[in-house]
Design a protein that fits this description.
CATH topology: Porin
Radius of gyration: 20 Å
Structural class: mainly beta
CATH architecture: Beta Barrel
Number of domains: 1
Largest sheet: 18 strands, antiparallel, barrel
CATH class: Mainly Beta
Length: 271
Amino acid sequence: MKQWLLLCSIILWGVTLLAQPLKELDNVGVYDKPYLIVTTMNSEDEFAEMREKFNKQGKIVERKYYGDGFQLIKGVRYHYNKNGELESESLLNGFGEVYDSIVYRYNQKGECMATEVVNRKWTRPTWNVQREFDNLGRVNQQWLIHGETGRRQLMKQVTYKQDHQGNVEEELYRYADGSESAIIIDYNREKKPKRKIFERIDGTTRILEEINYNKNGYINNITLYNNREKPMTKYVYGKRDREGNWLTMKETNYYDSEKVVKSYKRKITYY
């Protein structure tokens, strides 16, 4: 359940954190010049348009959401250190002003040891997430630090099971309240490029997500499932440009008695 929020937050743009050995090619850019992505949203959505700027390394540097009449609603600016690691995010309001910041701290190995949310009104961290890693650089413990009291609370512990090729097949999460859950990954390498992600809680396993790829390693479609293991939302990627970035995408949301389809179009300018 706790991983479900993470999956939903990244799934719209066709990127998955578990994409190995298949490619993560939905926002990669060309890595030799900056570019701009303009996504036209649906009329039913809160935003009419989203604009994303990338640097020549293919890293996003700014994302802004606009309403009708090109009115800014909110945005984020991304800042990187000399090693190319994400150093901070500046959260923007409708006037383009920074109201909150997210700060990332790394160790010498480049592992993100801590995340802090800084509230500009209080000039102190609102909260701080600290991480510990195993010898393969994977998070195995995560702590929540309260910004005002400094109280340290264990959020979760993670153990990993992997196949003989080193691909993670299961992530087991143990939480502070004693509960457990697991993410199980089925790569299905022998057949069509496909990945299924399952969740196991109290001995019951259910499917969360299914990702299908084409022969070049690009994502064809993603399906998210509800608690009854019925399709809840499906994303289908259509045309791509010659750099591999998607230009059209269709989102279908399934309800008990109907389904709602939304379409997204992107225009990408390479400088």
